[in-house]
Amino acid sequence: MVPTTPPTDTDFDVVIIGAGISGIGAAYHLKTKRPSTSFAILEGRSALGGTWDLFRYPGIRSDSDMPSFGFGFKPWTHRQSIADAHVILDYLNEAVDENGIRAHIRYNAKVDGADFDSATGRWTIRTTDAETGDPITYTARFIYSGTGYYNYEAGYTPEFPGRDTFRGQVIHPQHWPDDLDYTGKKVVVIGSGATAVTLIPAMAAQAAHVTMLQRSPSYVLSLPGEDVIANTMNKLVGPDKAYRIIRRKNIALNRGIFKASKRAPKVVRKLLMADVKRRLPKGYDVDTHFNPSYDPWDQRLCMVPNGDLFTAISSGKASVVTDHIDAFTETGIALTSGQHLDADIIVTATGLDIMPFGGIDLSVDGEQVDVSDTVVYKAMMLSGVPNFVFAIGYTNIAWTLKVDLICTHMMRLLAHMDEHGMDVVTPVLTDSTMERTPLLDMSSGYVQRRIGTFPKAGTAGPWTVKMAYEADIERLEHGPVADPALKFESTRLETAAVAS
After folding, report:
1. H/E element, 39
2. Record keywords: GTP-binding included (predicted)?
3. Is the pTM of this model over 0.90?
């Protein structure tokens, strides 16, 4: 990309939104592959790290193995394979400092909206300083959105009858108080997803008792907290050589589990149930509490390192209740079965709220973009929206594997535009009859609640979305950049024609 104006403090070739793992990955690609391209990272919070800095609840950790989840350019060398949040945050800070990225981050820059001007081929990005409330405007040729799909302002909590009558504390994990003392307290955690299965063993060590209250069970898979093979190879051949091998091994294993779940769900279910039964006391009611009604990988599997959830249950420090809530009471929760759960603290691990692109308002030439009416191109751009790339990672394997491929393809796209003297690229969907499908094909409640607000996927050509790493390598890393669905333009040529 050839800049048309000298870079200034608020004018860049590329603006990256979000200093989480997706934004840091994009910054690395720009820094190393396009050193003459100016860029800034606009981060709405006062610290980098995204999810890994925002969430502070006990036990927060990765739900993918870190050799897969980590950056392709920076080996994961910590002994933990399923890593705690603070370890991941250290890793991200190291990546930022080792690659000279920190100076590019603008903190407290909450992006409110962005408008693309076709005449100049540039974005105007409106931000608010989160500390002072002052508006600041940035301009850029390209926008890369690394916001993910969480609503960082609030999680999802359903309306519970009688909530105001409860005399204890009600806490959502996304807003965990720093000073919460649950020592010797009776805790009820509402939910059965990744957050719940993380919280329960972490709190059980200090609480009097922790109860996981779920309407229906999730699949829970125990994995080693440390990868013995990885740690041994790091010592024998060094992290750089070992990382490539370990990463391929883990990707193949994870993809194998997913494919097996889709091809032979009954077999995989049986294997998962057998592992749970092996880890719990004899006679435990596994069918009620750990045998979901859906097939494996219709929703994400919940990963627990070293079976810590099952250890907490087996010790008697934690228990699982599968029932429906009738109402909160002064002293706990009344269930439809007639049972009452006493509680001092209730944790509503009831899910995330999701939103596209951090809720940023997009417009082109003054006309607002209805994101839900767009179709994604190669799962990284939006139909009818110029010079805009976004990162949404995989739902069935490590998030960052997809992000890295998107960044790779964006670098190839920018190089192609440089080579041909173009500075604007827009995906154009000409087939108005193409069937549209949800961007994320998962039955999870948090997805189903808000997926209608997201862009759609198509059913043919580059408009399809496949959560398949090997297919994306072919499409994004090795496939051609030029495509009939892409419209390339040069504002420089148009300006020169007008001037003449």
Report:
1. strand 39-42
2. no
3. yes
One-character DSSP codes across 93-162: HHHHHHTT-GGGEETTEEEEEEEEETTTTEEEEEEEETTT--EEEEEEEEEEE---SB-SS-------TT
Strands 186-190 and 361-364: unpaired
What CA dihedral angle connects 244, 37, 410 and 145, to 10 degrees?
Answer: 100
Show the domains of the chain with their CATH numbers: 11-153+354-499 (3.50.50.60), 163-348 (3.50.50.60)
CB within 8 Å of 265: residues ≥ 6 apart = 295, 296
CB neighbours (10 Å) of residue 281? 10
pLDDT tens-place string over residues 454-465:
999 999 999 999
User: What was the pLDDT predicted at 339?
Assistant: 97
Environment class of 184 (CB within 10 Å of its CB; exposed 0-12, middle 13-18, buried 19+): exposed
Give the CA angle between residues 446, 17, 195 to the nearest 5°: 30
pLDDT confidence bin for 493, thresholds 50/70/90: low
Q: How far is CA 28 from the centre of its chain?
A: 19
| pLDDT tens track for 40-66 | 999 999 999 999 999 999 999 998 899
Task: With beta carbons less than 8 A apart as the criterion, state whether 386 and 426 touch.
Answer: yes
